[in-house]
Amino acid sequence: MSNYSQREIPMLAEMRRPVDVPMELIRACKDELAALNLCMNLSNLSDEAIRDALGIDKGHFSRLRKGRGNFPSNKRLDLMALCGNRAPAQYEAYRLNCDLVDKSKDAQIRELEEQLSQLRRAA
Fold first, then answer.
1. Quick count: other Cβ atoms within 10 Å of Cβ 70?
2. How far apart are CA 34 and CA 88, in angstroms?
3. Considering the domain boundaries, does residue 49 fall inside one?
4. Is residue 27 within 8 Å of residue 93, measured between CB atoms?
5. What count of Cα atoms within 13 Å lies in the side-chain half-sphere of residue 8?
6. What distance in Å separates the CA atoms of residue 86 and residue 78, rounded to the nearest whole number?
7. In this structure, are residues 93 and 53 in contact, taking their beta carbons and an 8 Å threshold?
8. Can you give the CATH number for the domain in which 23 is found?
């Protein structure tokens, strides 16, 4: 049984689609831990809400936040979805000098190109 009151449940149930964090914040991260903490801090969720939603033990979560433990790699995507931002992925891409592609924007571009193509055929 969860310790959440009925008021808290809807907040966690509404996992936001992760958005990009401004690059100046990503560049300010000195390491992966800073990017993970940035992700969590920007969410405005409590540590308790994050760790409970991700199923991480309280002591282990405290060590993670301080850099004394490793964040479980199988929870990274869930963390970004829960917190509503892609700071850890953006940090990795920044360190590897890569660009991240927002698939939804790609799909929108393809849809617009298809509409333009249909309009040209109709004209």
1. 11
2. 9
3. yes
4. no
5. 11
6. 11
7. no
8. 1.10.260
Work out the number of other CB atoms within 10 angstroms of the CB of residue 120: 8
Task: Please provide residue 23's backbone torsions phi and psi, each rounded to the nearest 5 degrees.
Answer: -60, -30
Could you tell me if 47 and 65 are in contact, meaning their C-beta atoms sit under 8 angstroms apart?
A: yes
Query: By three-state DSSP, how is residue 45 classified?
Result: coil
Question: What is the rounded (10 degree) CA torsion for 68, 69, 71, 74?
Answer: 180
Q: Which domain holds residue 76?
A: 8-98
Rounded to whole angstroms, how far apart are CA atoms 114 and 108? 10
| Neighbour tally for 93: CB within 10 Å | 15
User: pLDDT tens digits for 84-95?
Assistant: 999 999 999 999
Count how many domains the chain has. Answer: 1
Count how many residues are written for the chain: 123
42 burial (CB, 10 Å; 0-12 / 13-18 / 19+) is middle
Q: What is the mean pLDDT of residues 29-57?
A: 95
Rounded Cα distance, 79 and 38, in Å: 12
Instruction: For the full predicted model, state whether its pTM sits above 0.85.
Output: no
List, in sequence order, every beta strand (DSSP E) within 20-123: none
